[in-house]
Structure formats: C-alpha cells, structure tokens
Amino acid sequence: MTDPSAPEQAHATALPDPAARAPAGVRLIASDVDGTLLHDWQPIPAPTVAAIRDCLSAGIPFVPVTGRPLRWLAPIHASVPELGPVICANGSIVYDLAQARVLTAHTVDGAVLRDFVGLVRERMPAAVLGFETLTGLLLEPGFRTRFPADATWIDPADSPEVRDVVKVILRTGSRDSDAILAQVREVIGPVLHATHSNPRNGLVELSANGVTKARTLAAWCTEAGITADQVAAFGDMPNDIEMLEWAGHSYAMANGHPDVLAAADGIAPAVLDGGIAEVLRTIAARR
C-alpha cells in the first residue's frame, strides 16, 4: 500500500525518447497508480487523462493495477469515469469501478495467517501489523498511518482470527522498506508473498502466496483473449516488477526504484515530467 506522503525517487537522467519506442499492436495497457499515473495523492494529470481516453477511443482497454486498497479507488474513478476493471491490493482483488463491485478476490487462508502472525511475534517482536480486508482496514495499536480515521483498531491478540484478509501490512519503526522486506522474507519464507511500494515509508505488504499484480493481470488477459506480448505495462516500485517482467512491453518510471528500472524494457519520464502520457498517445496512434 503506497504511502502518498513519501517523496518520489530522484529522476533518472539522459532518457531516450520512450514514445519513439512505443510498440504497435498493443491490445491492453496496465498501469500502476501512485508514482506512475499520479504524484503524491494528486489527481491524475490532465494530459495523462486525455491520453488514457485516446487509448480507450482506439479500442485499447486501460487497466489500473495498483497496491491501493478498495477504499482508495474513488479518486481514480473520479479522474476517469470511463474505466472499468481495476486490479488492486497488489493483485488480490479485481474490482469493477463502473459497477462498484468486487469481481474476484484472493484472501489469505486463516491457518496461514495464524502461522504468519506467530512467526512475526516470535522473530520480529518490533513489528506492528495491519490487515486490509474486504470490508475495511484493521490496525494494531501503534501502527503509523496517514489516515487513522480509515482504520478500526484491534487487540493484537485478535489478529490471528481476522477474516477476509486480502493484504497484510507490516511496520517495525524503521523507514527502510528494502531492509524490512529482506527481513520479512527471511522470516516467513514462502508463507505469503511479500513486497513493498515505497523504499522510504517502512511499509511491507503481504498477499496470499503466489498472488501478485502479474498473476491477476495474466488471468484477466487470458479471459479476454489477450496475450502477454500484446500488453504494455508501466510501474515504478518493487510490487510492479513481476508485472513488468510478464508484459511484452514494459516501462519503468524515471522516478522508480533501481530494481524496477533494471526489470523494464524502457523508461518513461517521471510523473512530474509528463509521465506516461506521450507513450500512451503514441500507442493509441499506432493501434
């Protein structure tokens, strides 16, 4: 879950023209939201909205693929009401923006959750947990959040029994997300899929084992008869890496995490430098 209060990464330099490399024949565009479509909880910039609409008019679906939970999707719908499905919670949910309903959800098994909480209590005693569920956010006392009014505060003793969890979130007091992620992966092994969406907010996000943006996007595309080589994907953080590696055409944002820059085929300008708008316009024109 991206922390919109955190600053962006430093911009990469000496970018080639990403629009010049935009592919023809794209049948679907998948894009991360925070740090990719928009900056710091602001609306999607008007040129990017116009470019999304160019793609829709050309018959190319535009699917937001985000770490955001259900309760943070309204601003996306407000910016582009024409959008339909969005993949959120790092692939745990497919949600129809137009109809305001959950289409599919991958929740964490109750026994798996109990085992995970037990491991964390034993090996990461400084950790504080939160739980994104299908009905809202549950947080243990001491969990730092920008939006405390969104949360229901729970007794840590009740955490293993929380139900309908689509994403677990974890903090330790450190703001080094990369270091915390490495520690979490060492502690839990393959119990859950761990990632993060901001290197400096100290928040690690965990979904059911195997659930990623890429896996859910691939399933959605298969149902639509779209292959990976017909997909262009955009992202900026480690929770986007699997999606960028899966898509036939991938772009990391210039303001992105180094691991994301290394995983993508091309680099798009940072959001504040125009973002993905020009690449989208070129893809639409080449359709």
What does this structure look like?
This protein has helices at residues 46-57, 74-79, 110-123, 177-188, 213-224, 241-246, 258-263, 277-285; strands at 28-31, 62-64, 85-88, 93-96, 101-105, 128-133, 136-139, 151-153, 165-171, 192-195, 204-208, 231-235, 249-253, 266-268. With 287 residues, the chain is of the alpha/beta class. Strand 13 (249-253), helix 7 and strand 14 (266-268) form a beta-alpha-beta unit. The longest helix has 14 residues, at 110-123. The chain is globular, with a radius of gyration of 18 Å.
Summarize the structure.
The protein has 287 residues and is an alpha/beta fold. It has eight helices and 14 strands. The strands form three sheets. The chain has a six-stranded mixed beta sheet with strand order 8-7-6-9-11-10. It has a five-stranded parallel beta sheet with strand order 2-1-12-13-14. A three-stranded antiparallel beta sheet has the order 3-4-5, covered by helices on one side.
